[in-house]
Amino acid sequence: MRIPHAPAPPTPPGSRAPARSAAAPAAVLAAASALLLALVAAEWRPLLDLDGGISRTTHRWAVAEDGLTRAARVLTDWVWDPWTMRLLCAVVVVLLLRRPATRWTAGWLVVVVALGTAVQQGLKAALGRERPVWSDPVDTAQYAAFPSGHAMTATVVLGLLLWVLRRRRPGPALWRTALVVAVVSVAGVGLTRIWLGVHWPTDVLGGWLLGALMVVGAVAVHRRLRPAAPDAAPGPSAGARPSSTPEPSTSDDPPCRPR
Predict the structure, then answer these.
(1) pLDDT at residue 243 tops 90
(2) Rounded CA gap, 192 and 27, in Å?
(3) Among 88, 97, 55, 71, which residue's Cα sits nearest to residue 197?
(4) What is this structure's pTM?
(5) Cα(58)–Cα(137) distance, rounded to whole angstroms?
(6) CA end-to-end span of the chain, whole Å?
(7) Distance of CA 133 to CAs 55, 89, 140, Å?
(8) What is the residue-wise DSSP string for 51-109?
(9) d(CA 193, CA 183)
(10) Tens-place pLDDT, residues 116-128
(11) Could you tell me which of 124, 153, 129 has the C-alpha nearest to residue 211?
(12) pLDDT of 15-40, one tens digit each?
């Protein structure tokens, strides 16, 4: 007599899909980041010539357009500064700590942002790439050039906060506004660094690529270690019909007879 095997428990829908969907972007970002890093470290002449040509052109524009340059300095030094980004992240962390269900996510945010800063500073120290030097600078910056700390920090912080917001099922208007603000900020901070002549274009590109790679990797880790329901469960869909099967009673009261 053969004893039938119990069927394997069904795999929760979507449990493997996030891992598969994150693998391709992570691989592309990792390959692009590694290639750019290798070319910068090797001081590949065509890349240096491209950097120099773009930077000389934008510097001439920055010198000529004094009003736009002052606006770029305000944006890059105050609105999109790495410390402003970290302060924004800290506010979100405090809000997440107020709910036990989201405290793990709060700690995850702190660790990833801190790790991003460590990676950024480590690469700067390892490569020691010189910043652009001008006879008539419109702004100054310290330490090594690659990768751009402004670009990488904005990408990491705003990318993570967008994902956290998405988990809470925001309304369409709020989500579109947050997405536009994040994209404009990440793109804008990189362009201001090039405009002000304190970074080569590939420094900014490296910050964007490495920051995006960290976001994709961090989200994958979160999904693997905390495969729980989102922070805000969605309500019933408009087209869903209530089940005709009565829920099992959880009360000691006798069941009501249908009339």
Answers:
(1) no
(2) 29
(3) 55
(4) 0.82
(5) 12
(6) 50
(7) 10, 33, 9
(8) HHHHHHHHHHHHHH-HHHHHHHHHIIIIIS-HHHHHHHHHHHHHHHHTSGGGHHHHHHH
(9) 16
(10) 999 999 999 999 9
(11) 153
(12) 455 556 778 999 999 999 999 999 99
